[in-house]
Amino acid sequence: MRKKIIAGNWKMNMTFDEGQKLTSEIVNMYKDESISDVEVVLNVPFPHIMPVKKLIGKTPRIFVGAQNCSDQDSGAYTGEVSAKILASFDTDFVILGHSERRQYFGEDNELLAKKVKKALEHGLTPIFCCGESLEIREAGTHLPNVKFQLKQSLFDLSAEEFSKIVIAYEPIWAIGTGKTASAEEAQEMHDSLRKSIASKYGSEVANSTPILYGGSMNAGNAKELLSKPDVDGGLIGGASLKSRDFLEIIKSY
Ligand code: PEP
Known about the structure:
- It is an enzyme of class 5 (isomerase).
- Pathway: Carbohydrate degradation; glycolysis; D-glyceraldehyde 3-phosphate from glycerone phosphate: step 1/1; Carbohydrate biosynthesis; gluconeogenesis.
- This is Triosephosphate isomerase.
- One of its GO terms (molecular function) is triose-phosphate isomerase activity.
- The chain is α/β, with parallel strands linked by helices.
- The chain has a single domain (about 5-250), classed as TIM Barrel, CATH 3.20.20.
- The protein contains twelve helices and eight strands.
- An eight-stranded parallel β-barrel has the order 1-2-3-4-5-6-7-8, surrounded by five helices.
- α1 runs parallel beside α2, α1 (about 15-35) packs parallel to α12 (about 245-250) and α5 (about 110-120) packs across α7.
- It binds phosphoenolpyruvate.
């Protein structure tokens, strides 16, 4: 059975107080609801990692993640944070290849391959984001386009390394726009990605790789998206900033 994961992406939001309030609310609601089979990841801005981790404490199945890491371990790279440093702060996950990093910071598939390696080397679980632009979707080449992103950034990994990866399919046109892929469109892409993982690493690895959907997922549309057989959870931006909305998504799984 594959893991079910609901991951929040706070992006560059939340002051210290806001982050503490949101985390406490999520942890308390999560405990009350006694949700047993969904893993929750809070991908927070770097300074929140320690205090959020502290609030989570020993609550089972809630983890903390970062939203980026360097492809280097240490050195004169002002402003960067390495996987090695993140691991030393007990960070569990790291989002890599989010379309905002690709678009605003010029991250390409080759650089992401190095970052993924570093994350794995230091014991972090990468949530590797991939997805197509509206132009590519309209041209009808979205399936090969997204498969190519996986191939370039992930397919040099060994099967053992690959089996630690979480994939997040995030159509760029659906991120923060209020437009979601339909459940059928998401399923089509997830199925295609799983098949390409199977042809590279075999069906056992493919069948155990969680593939999350991201792009304007909210309490209203989550149930339908999450009901698809190859959709193993969600990566949630806007709706992860309000505890009730986020919990509604978790509960709808
Ligand atoms: C994201 O940032 O990964 C995302 C999916 O954002 P939103 O849910 O706001 O579209």
